[in-house]
Design brief:
The structure is a homodimer.
Chain A lengths: L1 E6 L11 H11 L9 E5 H7 L3 E3 L7 H10 L3 H10 E8 L2 E6 L4 E3 L12 E3 L5 H16 L4 E8 L8 E10 L3 E2 L15 E2 L1 H13 L7 E5 L5 E2 L18
Parallel strand pairs in A: 2-8
Antiparallel strand pairs in A: 1-12, 2-12, 3-7, 4-5, 5-6, 8-9, 9-13, 10-11
Helix pairs in contact in A: 1-5, 3-4
Amino acid sequence: MIQITSIRISDDIRLYNDLSAMILEAIADSQIEIQNGDILVVTHKIVSKAEGRIVDLACIKPSTKAIRMAKVHDKDPRVMELILKESKQILRAKNGVIISETKHGFVCANAGVDQSNVKGDMAVLLPVAPDESASRIQDSVKKKIGKEIAVIITDTFGRTFRNGQTNVAIGIAGINPIKSYIGTYDMYGRKLRVTEIAVADEIASAAELVMGKAEGTPVAIVRGYIFEKASKTSVKLLLRAKERDLFR
Amino acid sequence: MIQITSIRISDDIRLYNDLSAMILEAIADSQIEIQNGDILVVTHKIVSKAEGRIVDLACIKPSTKAIRMAKVHDKDPRVMELILKESKQILRAKNGVIISETKHGFVCANAGVDQSNVKGDMAVLLPVAPDESASRIQDSVKKKIGKEIAVIITDTFGRTFRNGQTNVAIGIAGINPIKSYIGTYDMYGRKLRVTEIAVADEIASAAELVMGKAEGTPVAIVRGYIFEKASKTSVKLLLRAKERDLFR
């Protein structure tokens, strides 16, 4: 059985906060004890805030290109400037929707630039190196309470072909994000068609169900899922190479 | 807290089997009591088998087109024939991968035609009307044990941009598959950017974590998730209209 529990963090997260200490405190406040093998799922927003990846829009001077695109796509030119700066490549821009590939290689709307759940005229950017952010939390939990856990940092992305958004992994530590069935057989001895499951994304989605969007619960603990541990791992394993994608 | 439990079904499912009776028996064997508000997640494969959507390939005579495409894409011409018959439109065909839109409107590989977890030279097709299949299970649970549940029938689909497959909903009953935040506000009183979460797909993904692919556990119970009930609902709410998709 898998159990998923949300963790409330009441305090606003600020630059230089010790995020993992705050998470551990919040978990203790919830009367929960972290166990070996738990997966800590963390919304990227609090990671970005603790890392200073939050921008006062008043300080952004949009480029001519950003001003032009903002007009066409009905966006704040300063936000448009951030989207351009965070993107490796704009893939589609239509009806106010901008889909780009971020510097990390994620394909998502607005390069992950987000104005919700921040104070005033601010925007949050994705963490610069989300795998490293996840590793830091993992290491810190090991150091502070001696438990071996995995960490998944998430964002909420739209998808092609289907309505609605789902939570996906954007940074990982301690877990192989893919469960491979390559070379394994089904109940009747036939090679399996389904060969690779993106379990890190499924865990991110599962955690979203308890985290919500405005409840102040940016962390979840997923317990009871047996995963393949991986000391050297990366969310890049989840990113399909451009030339292997039939819809890019 | 959300709890997800897998249910083992040892018997092979056959045409005219009373699927919901078999599921309820399997749940009882697992010492679990269904509760009001549970979500029953069911792999489509056992639904298809119970509905006779399983084909002996020896009985399929491939068309000239199927034979030609099978050669190019290194497929069994009889399976190719089924893929063509199940598809409304082939969207991409390259390197042995065929992505099509099924008659239901799902965009997936091989129109959902699948040869794993079936005996001998057989192929399983998607249920004809998966929402109705879900409703039948829901109604039957209500009738047999008096409990109000939701049902989600799943398949495992690939995605654009990201490696690995995830479980998604292909049929639903009793639950609004979308959780809408439209018109709601974040912790700081700002309108939320993330407006619609595809919770039915997130639940399908969460359930996959306990179901696996070859363990004989085609059913999971998701308990503790508070969802919006819907008596008239459809998986079609999750299907993005062609003209609203930037990547089709």
